[in-house]
Amino acid sequence: MAQVDQTLKDRKILLIVGGGIAAYKALDLIRRLRERGGQVRVVLTAAGRAFVTPLSLASLSGQPVHEDLFSLTDETEMGHIELSRSADLIVVAPATADLMAKAANGLANDLASTLLLATDKKVLMAPAMNVRMWLHPATRRNAARLMADGILFTGPADGDMACGEFGPGRMSEPLEIVAAMTQALSGDTRLPLNGDVAVPACLLKGRRIVITSGPTHEPIDPVRYIANRSSGRQGHAIAQAAARAGAHVVLISGPVSIPDPVGVEMRRVETARDMLSAVEAALPADVFIGAAAVADWRVEGTSDSKIKKTPAGSPSLKLAENPDILAQVSTRSSGRPQLVVGFAAETNDLLEHARAKLTRKGCDLIIANDVGAGSNVMGGTHNKVHLVSRTGVDSWPLLDKDEVASRLIMRCAELLAGSEPE
Ligand code: CTP
Known about the structure:
By secondary structure, the protein is an alpha/beta fold.
């Protein structure tokens, strides 16, 4: 018998069991959760009923099982709104392609989908389906949509499927789901990208993504340079999220003091002009994301030796404009990436400047963030961004930079869905 888990103890879990061979694992999941002190209420879909019986779910959970949206008994005991809101966490296991499609599109034609639409709580999905269904553009689009909406995922894992195929689609094991639930319940707002709560690992498989990150350093003389406060955290987090989603990532970084993301091809550069050459060498790609805080100007006629103080007074620096990397990538006549994403760091009139940048630089999406005094975005751990595209603005809440990264990668996957890889 497992020990009571302080995060799960007395927490109300609403478990939605969809239809699939993996539904049998829901029985073990209920047992594991109750051992740890959790309270589980089960909703069984019509398809789920073909794989597990309400009686076994009720016996293990110690609570009646809910199946019918219009059941009078259920409504008098507990309405569906109350059912979804009284939970601390909603878990969908197995999350079938059908349940994901409904949730991604806001359908509410049965109890499970209605609860997912009515809830104001975190939702964790454990997908389980045939590998072809998981890899189908429609499911990839739905997974991306759900991720962008803040739904958490655990798995699916690679494995032998009941249908005799091998690949991603096997539901996470009950203890993996328990670990993901503990993480979700512990108030961690990040979307962890590996381990238990994962961006679908093959979401960007076969795609090549080039990302710039960090500041650039523009030398004045051999010991001095012009720079800015960028830490590279946001760009590096995006590279990490893209790599975990299965993309081939080339990360072109200015000088930063944070670790390299795992599983990406690194190119280290100093100046804006070096960064442009590295980007050009890394193209073609499916996606270009310009997250670097590229210095707008460089010093013209840098000195080969250290500039010394002289009685003649302070030296004056003549600045020259640097190439605009984002604009150059965006306006390439051939080999333009399908998706070009830029950032707009502004201290005032954020959306107005962001829209102007979208048009001026010809990119598809601008991630606008307020870097005004007190925002603590540059160099900080969190970011509040607005996604500005030609069709409108999508504003996200204040999020950890890792979560901004994973949501952005989900959005990119959604925008790329259905197109051929580069
Ligand atoms: N950018 C770039 N090359 C430059 C300057 C900026 O690729 N020489 C990219 C950044 O990586 C970012 C976007 O352009 O994705 C906007 O950067 P930002 O510094 O906000 O804008 P600027 O181009 O500097 O425009 P402004 O000076 O009007 O703010």
